[in-house]
What we know:
mainly alpha
Amino acid sequence: MRACCQSRIQVRRxxxxxxxxxxxxPGVVLALVPKCPACVVGYVALATGIGISLPMAAFLRSVLVxxxxxxxGVLLARAMRAKRGRx
Length: 87
């Protein structure tokens, strides 16, 4: 007879029902980022009522694209690690 600590039953964490939202948000933001800094200026002005310069808009766009790519990379790494752990 085996003790409970010697059994081969593995406890898994429950899968998140909304795990796809983590992929959806950075993907949609990345798809909707405008290509020209003038459009970024317009969107910021419409959303906040604050005007920003074109160089600042170009920097903001670059940062937003970078953050989305890093978020997608982290999600991809987690998915690959989880898949490797199951195999």
